[in-house]
């Protein structure tokens, strides 16, 4: 997703560990199903931002919300139990190293979500119809240097994503193969509810 100007986003390296079963369609094409654990994360930062937007208060009166953000950082990390379903092309063999390319879908169930945030924000409300600016009234949602806190709820427990991977395979035994490669996921559903 596109970020508003001023925000910087960086991914936190994730790890995927899967165990699976495959069935050969032919010598180089297989379909696979498995069970895995996946970690993903992201960090958002902004030094300073002032923005405003038109909204309505609890009494349905329109007002201009003015938001001042300062030194905000938010890190999110998730742990999922996943069920990958893929088609794979490659030369994977229990006798010699090989390569693979695969793609499919991953069905994921959220096991844990960790969120940490720091920074502060200030909100003001300008009511044009009354020519008044409200500020530092927490009861009405207008804060002065309010610390950021993040709700750990509000995430979907079930997610679907498209997946693709490519890499090399190294046989460890007649029944176990170790794979190293790159993996990408493209979410079809939002993490937040």
Taken in chain order, the helices and strands follow as EEEEEEEE
**Amount of helix:** under 10%
Question: What can be said about the biggest beta sheet?
Answer: 8 strands, antiparallel
Please give the radius of gyration in angstroms.
24 Å
Task: Determine the mean pLDDT.
Answer: 88
What's the short story on this structure?
This protein has 193 residues and is an all-beta fold. The protein has strands spanning 8-24, 29-56, 62-90, 98-127, 132-135, 146-147, 158-171, 177-187. Strands 1, 2, 3, 4, 5, 6, 7 and 8 form an 8-stranded antiparallel sheet that branches.
What would you note in describing this structure?
- With 193 residues, the protein is mainly beta.
- Helices cover 0% and strands 70% of the residues.
- The protein contains no helices and 8 strands.
- Strands 1, 2, 3, 4, 5, 6, 7 and 8 form an 8-stranded antiparallel sheet that branches.
- Strand 7 and strand 8 form a beta hairpin.
- It is elongated, with a radius of gyration of 24 Å.
- The protein starts with 7 loop residues before the first strand and ends in a 6-residue tail after the last strand.
- The mean pLDDT is 88.
Notable traits:
8 strands; 70% strand; eight-stranded antiparallel β-sheet
Please render the helix and strand layout as text.
Elements: E1 8-24, E2 29-56, E3 62-90, E4 98-127, E5 132-135, E6 146-147, E7 158-171, E8 177-187
Antiparallel strand pairs: 1-2, 2-3, 3-4, 4-5, 4-6, 4-7, 7-8
């Amino acid at each position: 997703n596109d970020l508003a100007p001023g925000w910087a986003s960086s991914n936190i390296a994730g790890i995927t560990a899967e165990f699976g079963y495959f069935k050969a369609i032919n010598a180089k094409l297989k379909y696979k199903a498995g069970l895995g654990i996946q970690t993903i994360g992201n960090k958002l930062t902004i030094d300073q931002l002032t923005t405003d937007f038109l909204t309505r208060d609890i009494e349905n009166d329109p007002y201009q919300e003015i938001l001042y953000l300062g030194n905000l950082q938010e890190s999110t990390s998730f742990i999922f139990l996943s069920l990958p379903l893929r088609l794979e092309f490659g030369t994977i063999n229990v006798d010699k190293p090989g390569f693979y390319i695969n793609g499919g879908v991953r069905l994921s169930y959220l096991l844990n979500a960790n969120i940490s945030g720091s920074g502060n924000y200030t909100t003001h409300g300008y009511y044009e119809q009354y020519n008044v600016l409200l500020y530092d009234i927490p009861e009405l949602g207008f804060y002065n240097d309010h610390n950021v806190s993040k709700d750990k709820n509000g995430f979907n427990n079930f997610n679907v994503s498209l997946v693709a991977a490519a890499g090399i395979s190294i046989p460890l035994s007649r029944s176990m193969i170790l794979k190293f490669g790159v993996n990408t996921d493209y979410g079809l559903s939002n993490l937040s509810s």
